[in-house]
Design a protein that fits this description.
By secondary structure, the protein is of the alpha/beta class. The strands form two sheets. The chain has a five-stranded parallel beta sheet with strand order 2-1-3-6-7, sandwiched between helices. A two-stranded antiparallel ribbon has the order 4-5. A hairpin with a 2-residue loop joins strand 4 and strand 5. The longest helix is centred in the C-terminal third of the chain and has 18 residues. It is globular, with a radius of gyration of 13 Å.
Length: 129
Amino acid sequence: MTDHAQRSVKGCRVLIIEDEYFLGHDLVTALRLLGYEVIGPVPELGDAMSIEPDAFDVAVVDINLRGCLAYPIADELIRLRKRFIFATGYGADAIPHRFRNVRRFEKPCDVETISGEISMLCDRQLSSA
């Protein structure tokens, strides 16, 4: 990880919204080892919607949460001006056009790549707050 990315990690709170236990656990563990403060994984739509926006800086969102699409969460994150990425098995063509500017990472995600994106999002989120 670059010096810049390491600085960006400090104090960055990441919400993981993921229903697949092993994928969520592996991502949480890897991000914590890199120095992120991690909330989750949160596996259900209702639970994710109830998390206070001040509790996190950026989010990683799986689109399919136990059979429910997570687009309401994504819409709320946009409304709240929270930065996020999708980590999903869905192809780009299956995601609604309104999310065209949201980065999408296919599962299983490379932690180094996703961490770099989270670091950039944290920089932007924290500098705009």
